[in-house]
Design brief:
heterodimer; A: 207 residues; alpha/beta; Rossmann fold; B: 118 residues; alpha+beta; 4-stranded mixed sheet; 4 helices; globular
């Protein structure tokens, strides 16, 4: 669209670069919020999400606006969206097993289902996506396939993030073998391993 | 424990919209928690997305959700879409069951394995 390009150029010319939206998607407990916090902390000095071992800690879309990455001589400005983990089931009893009261667990389950619906709705609105996978787990899950298929159908650029490579059980090569059509970046969001590699990939592929 | 397996042929699904298919699947699974449904076609990526959305809106104390897996490609090219429109078969299938029954579905591009039981 010529107007969009012109508007983008005008914003750049006026010193206010147009931001694109980057959604962090993936299964529950893949490390999306840890990664969102790492990116946000590195470039804004502030974290953006709560992190927990209990599944569905992120139950609504968390947004950090105008995060500017300065990578390889380029400035990339984005609105970072930390999505709730997508799942096909949410059983309140799983939260009870982790020490919550039945009432708390049912409330969390209800919020989690709403969060999943919200994350799915956002699939139609993001400009680019990081699909975060736990490198210790089987990457060929229905959730990953569904997210990827829907992003591909809309021609949205996707970078697959093979997270948790600091763990002994990590096998990022399985992710590369399963999805050879997309760039795969191996990282540890927790330790920051190869985070610069991810920033370079965002600058290269996400715009 | 008795597990019921219902196979829906591509022909049985051919006249239905994506939404009608999903209603059919979810109402059958909710009605009978010992039922696993096999569709003789892969769901489209868009239908899979809708299936998760509809499932989440139905989650309750007694229905925690589903396990689902598809193999095979959805009808992408014109020839396959036309074949499907005319009621023909496309390659692939989808397996769906309540998560209270289906413990695990493992898949790779060419096979599916499912573990069920309580």
């Amino acid at each position: 669209m010529p107007f969009r390009k012109f508007f983008s150029w005008l914003l750049g010319f006026l010193g206010r670069r147009e931001a694109f939206s980057l959604g962090l998607y993936g299964n529950v407990n893949a490390g999306k919020s840890t990664l969102a916090n790492k990116i946000s902390k590195d470039w804004t000095g502030e974290e953006m999400s709560e992190v927990s071992e209990i599944p569905h800690e992120t139950r609504e879309v968390k947004k950090k606006e105008r995060v500017s990455l300065k990578v390889d001589g380029k400035v990339v400005t984005m609105n970072l969206l930390d999505m709730p983990g997508i799942a096909t089931k949410v059983d309140y009893r799983d939260f009870v097993k982790r020490g919550m009261s039945t009432e708390q667990a049912q409330k969390r389950a209800k919020e989690a289902t709403k969060g999943i619906i919200e994350a799915i709705k956002w699939l139609e609105h993001v400009d680019a996506a990081l699909l975060v996978m736990d490198a210790c787990e089987d990457p060929y899950t229905q959730v990953n396939i569904t997210i990827l298929g829907n992003l591909e159908a809309r021609k949205i650029p996707v970078i697959i993030v093979a997270n948790k490579i600091d763990k002994k059980a990590a096998k990022p090569e399985r992710i590369k073998a399963a999805f050879p059509q997309h760039p795969v970046v191996e990282i540890s969001a927790l330790r920051g391993d190869n985070i610069q590699g991810l920033y370079s990939a965002i600058a290269k592929h996400a715009r | 424990m008795k597990v019921e397996l219902e196979v829906l042929s591509a022909k049985a699904l051919s006249g239905k919209t994506g939404s009608e298919k999903l209603e059919l699947i979810l109402s059958a699974i909710k009605k009978n928690k010992n039922k696993i449904i096999v569709l003789e076609e892969p769901l489209s990526r868009s239908d899979e997305k809708e299936l998760i959305t509809k499932t989440m809106s139905l989650v309750s104390k007694g229905f925690p959700g589903i396990e689902v897996a598809s193999i095979g490609e959805e009808a992408a090219d014109f020839k396959t879409q036309l074949l499907k429109f005319l009621g023909g078969k496309t390659t692939g299938l989808t397996v769906i069951g309540p998560s209270s029954l289906v413990r695990q579905v493992k898949r790779d591009p060419n096979s599916l394995s499912l573990t069920a039981g309580r």
